[in-house]
Specification:
Elements: H1 2-31, E1 33-39, H2 45-57, E2 64-70, H3 75-87, E3 92-95, H4 104-112, E4 117-120, E5 134-137, H5 140-157, E6 166-171, H6 177-193, E7 196-202, H7 207-220, E8 226-229, H8 232-244, E9 259-264, H9 268-276, E10 281-284, H10 290-301, E11 309-311, E12 316-318, E13 325-328, E14 331-337
Helix pairs in contact: 2-10, 3-4, 5-6, 7-8
The structure holds alpha-L-arabinofuranose.
Alpha-L-arabinofuranose binds at residues 43-44, 46-47, 121-122, 178, 205, 231, 263-264, 285.
């Protein structure tokens, strides 16, 4: 009998403690800031690091609940995700847009619902810029100009005449800010210096499409000796195709090598290719936007107004110290040398 009484008392105490714990848990859940993040996809190593950067800050310990949606590179999926965030009445929407246009309607819906939208990485091209609170990301046109300037310096230093440069562009996802900016600089600089542009092929920022694009380029223009890859995943694909075709990747185009340049510089495999001399130069694209977005949200929570456009400063990677820095429109970028 005594044992039964003790057991009952124990059960009552346990269930009371569990109720307290659950109530405590509920209070904490209610206190969390809910962030809906619509990510482009997982097309590149850069993108995965960008996702991890967001996940590392929007944690329960930091006071957040993150709702993550991977759009698989499709704008329609992003629009559906934003509508679901609105329905769930999230506190903030973070959007990494796959392309620039086509956002007016859905962002108006978010504005009507009173949900601040923070744009990351690529830009949105909207008629009314009050449709988003602020943007944080890279100056893609500047990245492109820096890489083209590095090439121009290299060609000058080695007495390579512009007319002997037969260059192809493996573009990123058409209509994305990263593609628009990098292609724009490429077109401008190649015209300015008189390089022979032999082909444009879309590589969608993926290694597999980079391979397809490189095969197309080789089929069309066997004389190609420089390839401007709009990210390093594409460059890794291009190297495989070039090597399989018996071409050597390297900076010495006077000896028949094919020079590759790229963007990002976060992928260890691509950095190794720089050290080996197979990629000559990479324009840095910094994916660590998580802490930046989190500090914007903290500002908004404190009633402050964050800067509308927040650019990230980036450098250049190469395996030669011959070109210590490049300068464009008064902006100087240091070249970091990567060696084995
Ligand atoms: O928008 C940034 C670009 O998107 C990166 O250069 C690329 O790797 C990514 O997929």
């Amino acid at each position: 009998m005594l044992m039964m009484i003790c057991l009952c008392a124990l059960l009552v105490a346990c269930s009371a403690r569990q109720e307290v714990a659950e109530a405590d848990h509920d209070i904490k859940e209610d206190d969390l800031i809910v962030v809906g993040f619509s990510q482009v996809g997982s097309e590149s190593y850069w993108r995965n690091v960008n996702t991890e950067s967001m996940e590392s800050v929007f944690t329960k310990e930091n006071g957040y609940k993150l709702i993550f949606e991977n759009a698989q590179q499709k704008q329609t999926n992003q629009i559906t995700a934003i509508r679901s965030f609105i329905q769930r009445d999230v506190d903030y929407i973070v959007l990494a847009p796959v392309v620039e246009t086509g956002w007016d309607t859905v962002l108006s819906e978010a504005k009507e619902a009173g949900i601040p939208v923070i744009i990351v990485d690529r830009r949105v091209d909207v008629s009314d810029d009050s449709l988003f609170t602020c943007w944080v990301g890279s100056d893609f046109e500047l990245e492109g100009s820096m890489v083209c300037m590095w090439m121009s310096k290299y060609f000058n230093m080695h007495g390579i005449s512009p007319s002997s440069i037969h260059i192809a562009d493996i573009q990123g996802t058409l209509g994305s800010s990263a593609q628009i900016g990098r292609t724009k600089s490429f077109q401008h600089m190649s015209r300015l210096w008189g390089w022979d542009v032999v082909a444009y092929e879309e590589g969608e920022f993926t290694k597999s499409k980079g391979k397809e694009a490189m095969s197309q380029i080789l089929a069309k223009s066997g004389n190609v000796n420089v390839v401007y890859c709009e990210n390093d995943s594409e460059a890794l694909g291009a190297i495989e195709v070039l090597e399989a075709a018996g071409r050597k990747c390297g900076s010495d185009i006077t000896k028949g090598e094919v020079m590759l340049v790229a963007f990002d510089g976060i992928n260890e495999e691509a950095r190794d290719k720089v050290a080996e001399g197979k990629i000559s130069c990479i324009g840095e694209c910094n994916p660590m936007h998580g802490p930046r977005v989190e500090s914007i949200i903290r500002k908004l929570e404190a009633g402050e107004v964050p800067e509308k456009y927040q650019y990230v400063t980036e450098g250049i990677f190469s395996n030669t110290s011959d070109i210590p820095s490049v300068m464009i429109s008064g902006q100087e970028r240091t070249v970091t040398v990567i060696t084995n």
